[in-house]
Amino acid sequence: DFDDKIDVLEELPANEESPVENAFERIHSSWYNIISRTQTMESTLTGHLPYLQYTFLSRLLQRDFSSLNEVETLADYIHFDYRNKCYTILLFRIYCDILPTQKVDLTFYMACRLALKEALKVLCPHMLCTEHGTDQVVCLYAMPVSESASLTEHISMLATEVKKMLPDEVCNN
After folding, report:
1. Strand, coil or helix: what is 17?
2. Of the given ranges (22-31, 81-90, 113-122), which has the lowest mean pLDDT?
3. Strands 136-144 and 85-93, sheet pairing
4. Which helix (H) or strand (E) is 64 found in, with range?
5. What value does the mean pLDDT take over residues 35-44?
6. What are the C-alpha distances in Å from 54 to residues 138, 140, 143, 158?
7. Which residue in 55, 170, 48, 172 sits closest to 113, CA to CA?
8. Which of 15, 75, 110, 142 could make a disulfide contact with 85, Cβ separation 3.0–4.6 Å?
9. Alpha helices in the chain (DSSP H)
């Protein structure tokens, strides 16, 4: 750390007229450069957060972690609050009665999955969701341990609220 500071000072141009002023300008410029780069990195990581959450949930479902410590570290990194929580996996399956059994309308399924994920995001912003196959959305639902006795009620209320939020085209097919 001390060596880095000396390196910065050694980069300062030699100027007999006002070395203190030049040093201050150089340090000031370096400071703003560091802040700008930090903000760019934070913005990039925030933009990638949905992909990291998707990957985390996919790995969790496939039991692709080597240790509980790895799970906790990644959960912290993606801002998933797991402490003092109980969990359940929710599986939402999209059925379509208007299509023949062999025909799959990918556009319809994509629209349904998107509408479902958006409704879930509004109702449970901290729940992790991912798509599984053409017709399923899988979610990791967490609630405080103190409320775990009413888990079934919470899930039932969530399903009712999701159904209310979905467009009629999604719920009536």
Report:
1. coil
2. 22-31
3. antiparallel
4. none
5. 83
6. 10, 11, 19, 21
7. 170
8. 142
9. 2-10, 19-61, 68-77, 106-123, 151-165, 168-171
